[in-house]
Amino acid sequence: MDRVRGSSAEPTADDSGSWFDRARAKYGLGTLLVAAGVVLFLFPEPVTSTAGLVLIGAGVLIWLAGRFQ
After folding, report:
1. Can the keyword Transmembrane helix be found in this entry's annotation (predicted)?
2. Reduced to 3 states, what is the DSSP secondary structure of residue 7?
3. 18, 28, 48, 60: which has the fewest Cβ within 10 Å?
């Protein structure tokens, strides 16, 4: 028994994981980074726009690397 999480430390069949793990398995990490980057880019602050561009670039690189493997 994991006292911090309050559940068993070993995964069970009904332990589906976090929403991020399910989305990453369904769409891929590159797609999620691009989506998060677009959302951040649309905020009118320079810092969030820059972070959005960085995430979009990282997502595209990860997506392209996965395509050519």
Report:
1. yes
2. strand
3. 18
Helix (H, G, I), strand (E, B) or coil at 38: helix
What are the 10-residue block averages of pLDDT along the chain, 69 residues in total? 55 65 82 92 92 94 85
Contact predicate 63/34, CB 8 Å: yes
pTM of the model: 0.66
Would you list the domain boundaries of the chain? 28-68
**Residue 66 amino acid letter:** G
Q: Identify which of 7, 4, 2, 62 has the alpha carbon closest to the alpha carbon of residue 33.
A: 62
Distance (Å, whole) CA 12 – CA 27: 23
Q: How far is CA 55 from the centre of its chain?
A: 10
Question: What's the pLDDT at 65?
Answer: 86
Predicted confidence at residue 36, as pLDDT, reads: 93
